[in-house]
């Protein structure tokens, strides 16, 4: 068995001094000094030899014991311990210097971790969404204050129960990004469910976040109704005001006796204006109804090139040209896609006037997505943030339905649409991205 380090160090120290001791003893024993003196010298040399060996042992072993104690303190989480005698010029002092530097770094890291943990706990307590964390056995290990309110119990009564017992199993099984209509002891409504995983104490935990969408949905619904009422009131008043005025004028004309010679012509013109305004109002209402009643897409194979050329032929404008693209086939509702592209092309044609140009092209954005673009050299768009808001329009006599309907069609096909100003030249650029996979 290997001897302990302190014994080996002591042995090395004794062996290192042994030659000098032997020489000294030999000289003393051969000398003519009196016997008592020689005995005293031998004892003194032997004592000095042993004392030096033990001192050498202490100079090596004591720093090691000190270092072991310091490391034990660090292992137990005490990062406040520091060693004295740190000196870069001394080998052991360099060790103390490195240990003190390590302790400073660990103490700063622990302080940062404690502050981050305290901040995280504070945020979890104050945030207005319910947060739950489950372990591998589907038992609740963490819940914030909003979660306690939602389940109607304090954390002490919730921790350790399964998701099934707490009524959260459906939320744990939902795919990411889906919404949940549910009733809990602390409230009911529609909830956005988000899931993620993290580790605490080396154990994997599943985090469930429930955000109440009811208030936001009601606010958006109220704003939509207010916008709809405001726009419809504007459209109806624009038609009813002249109709009411003309009706009064025509009634006065009929009451006159004798009637003027041009009374019949005035009556006819007035009735024509009333009919035109009624037709315009009917057209506006029909547009709104079409936006609300857009059916679900009926998918079939659509060749992108044939689709583009068919719409160009329907628009029948010499200002519209196509830029050839690759042979691509996607799955979609041909009628709805025609309406989508017609809206974009007509907007571009109206923007450029009689002397501008409109180009349509397409490309394969990635193996699963096709991008269709419509660009013009008109004045561009001024309010890009509101272009797809229903009933918002910048054109006189516009209904604000075309782009909103285009976005609704695009999103029903799983795609996206954007309308921005061109960066390389004056004009606007509309981009429609559609997936190539078959709609379910």
Question: Key terms for this structure?
Answer:
440 residues, five-stranded antiparallel sheet, five-stranded mixed sheet
Structure write-up:
- The strands form three sheets. Strands 2-1-5-4-3 form a five-stranded antiparallel sheet. A five-stranded mixed sheet has the order 7-9-10-12-11.
- The longest helix has 42 residues, at 214-255.
- It is 54% helix and 19% strand.
- The model has no long low-confidence stretch (mean pLDDT 78).
- It has 440 residues and is of the alpha+beta class.
- Quaternary structure: single chain
Beta fraction: 15-25%
End-to-end span in angstroms?
A: 75 Å
Mean pLDDT: 78
Low-confidence stretches: none
Shape: elongated
List the helices and strands and how they pair.
Elements: H1 5-30, H2 35-75, H3 91-126, E1 130-134, E2 140-143, H4 145-151, H5 155-158, H6 163-166, H7 169-173, E3 179-184, E4 187-200, E5 203-212, H8 214-255, H9 263-292, E6 300-303, H10 304-315, E7 320-323, E8 329-332, H11 334-352, E9 358-366, E10 369-376, H12 402-412, E11 416-421, E12 428-435
Parallel strand pairs: 7-9
Antiparallel strand pairs: 1-2, 1-5, 3-4, 4-5, 6-8, 9-10, 10-12, 11-12
Please sum up the structure shown.
Strands 2-1-5-4-3 form a five-stranded antiparallel sheet. It has a five-stranded mixed sheet with strand order 7-9-10-12-11. Strands 6-8 form a two-stranded antiparallel sheet. Helices cover 54% and strands 19% of the residues.
